[in-house]
Amino acid sequence: MIKWAARQGASIDALERVNDGKQTVFAFRHTEPGASLDEGLESVIVKAISDLPIPKLMQYQLADGQRTVSFVRPAHALTVLHGERLLPVKLLGLEADRFSQGHRFQGAARLYIDHADHYESILRHEGAVIVDMDERKAAIHEALMAQAKALDAHLGEDQVSASLLEEVSALVERGAVYCGKFDDDFLKVPQECLMLTMRTNQKYFPLFDAQEKLLPRFLIVSNMTVDDPSLIIDGNERVVRPRLADAGFFFQQDQKQTLEARLPQLEQVIYHAKLGSQAERAQRVASIAAWIASQGALDATLATRAALLAKTDLLTAMVGEFPALQGIMGRYYALIDGEDAALADAIAEQYLPRFAGDALAKTPLGTVLALADKLETLCGLFAIGQLPTGDKDPFALRRQALGVLRMLLERKLDLSLPELIDCGLRGLAERQTHASASADLMRFFNDRLAVYLREQGWAQDLVQALLARPQPRLYRLHERLEALQAFSKQEAASSLAAANRRIGNLLRKQGDEQEGPVDEACLQEPAELALWARVCQLKPQIEAAMANHEDAAVFTLLAEARPEVDQFFESIMVM
């Protein structure tokens, strides 16, 4: 208590008792004196700027040639107004004044801001700058859509386009959209390579036809609004051409060696210091994939080969240049090598889902490989004690676990989660150092499952009730939840739930003595005999309903025992 008071800057005598209606606590009352805007604003602005999530700062020299400042880019002007009043703020080596700057080429170089309310209007009309990011983004999006429509094309994936739109909107001050083109010969290269080159390196928007095929056209978002954009378009076309040529070169070079021929090279690629090379990991994934395939009557041999070849595209020049193409290029190269089409598709799908809400693998073999890959990651890292802690999850194991759960649930896979974990850990026997890996991983899955179900909109009490018992096979989990939800609305539900809690408490007090057959000779009272008779009557019906996965019927049968349960607890005192 004394230490706590000291942290608040108070003596123990300054504390007082306060009752909040539930409990009495010690509190310290302190009045913080107010500060004027002039006194407090500078520190607030400085903190806001310093807290910006800038991954890489630029260091530059100020105009005096003496001082240096670190910021994302050189700041040239600082205007801080409250209404019409200029506030004395110093930041980034600048002192606030009433002058700002417009567009470098198309706006006034020096703009006088007479009032804070006029800032946006002055920048727009005199500076050729749209200050509001949302307005700027909306204008650029409208122009992009109009250009695409005029070419009878579209921008492709909404999510990717939205991310790129966000980025380019932050790079320009108003934004004008122009259309460029490239040679049709480049379309011989897998379109994902060209798309990534244009989007990542050049910030262009590729265009697609109605069949999702890439067109030899792209849209440019420029910071210059001009009547004749030919120079802008020609310049961008010249810049993108060597980029696309590089992609074509990588594609041709990679085809000189098959994926199978690259397998020995995986031995030289370290996956994790405690888990060995990518070659060793591929063997573990192959073992898991073969087991999963055998459970679902799939080709275990094909699953094994898919797993062994899955990571070989990491050694290609294309994936070395564009890591985001891993798996995608593996599919192309597998088809070129003459591998089975199902195997090639599985290689492309092995990383799915990559993030929350991402698509799942569509093919059976792709699902097997994706499941095996994520399980190996989880089992491997749990085996060496690399568990997530608090908000630290450097290997994204929560995301991997969610992917496993989504595949089991949404693809309705009749697989036992404990058996999957055992299968994954078997290949790690010589490397495992964390003795409780299996139990810890099962708890981890249960925790992630509870979070997932709540995010799906299921009530917390239903989720807790369902997960109170182990759920080894998840493929019918939603049906169980629906049955439990329907039962919870019945009149008998609350009474049986209360009785169940009482029974659970009584059994926990008995410890190990709760196991074993019922001694009917001990049953003397009418309420005891009536309850036992009802249990004997319902037991075979409940067992049959459970065997047939008739969850609603199980709850209905349990509800039939309500009168006997209620009478038992009213009449019998259990010691």
Describe the structure.
Helix 12 packs across helix 13. The chain is globular, with a radius of gyration of 33 Å. The longest helix has 25 residues, at 230-254. Helix content is 51%, strand content 9%. The protein has five domains: 1-30, no CATH class; 37-125, no CATH class; 133-254, no CATH class; 260-479, Hypothetical protein af1432, CATH 1.10.3210; 498-511 and 521-571, no CATH class. By secondary structure, it is mainly alpha-helical. The strands form seven sheets. It has a three-stranded antiparallel beta sheet. A two-stranded antiparallel ribbon has the order 1-2. The chain has helices at 2-7, 37-50, 119-125, 133-150, 158-171, 191-202, 230-254, 278-295, 300-309, 317-321, 328-336, 341-349, 364-383, 397-410, 417-426, 437-455, 460-467, 477-488, 491-510, 526-547, 551-559, 562-571, and strands spanning 16-19, 24-27, 58-61, 68-71, 81-82, 85-86, 90-91, 94-95, 99-100, 111-112, 176-181, 205-208, 214-222, 270-272, 276-277.
Helix segment count?
22
Distance between the termini: 43 Å
The profile of the biggest β sheet is: 3 strands, antiparallel
What is the top-level CATH class of the largest domain?
A: Mainly Alpha
CATH topology of the largest domain: Hypothetical protein af1432
Notable features of this structure?
mainly alpha, three-stranded antiparallel sheet, 575 residues, single chain, 5 domains, 9% strand
Sum this structure up briefly.
With 575 residues, the chain is mostly helical. Helices cover 51% and strands 9% of the residues.
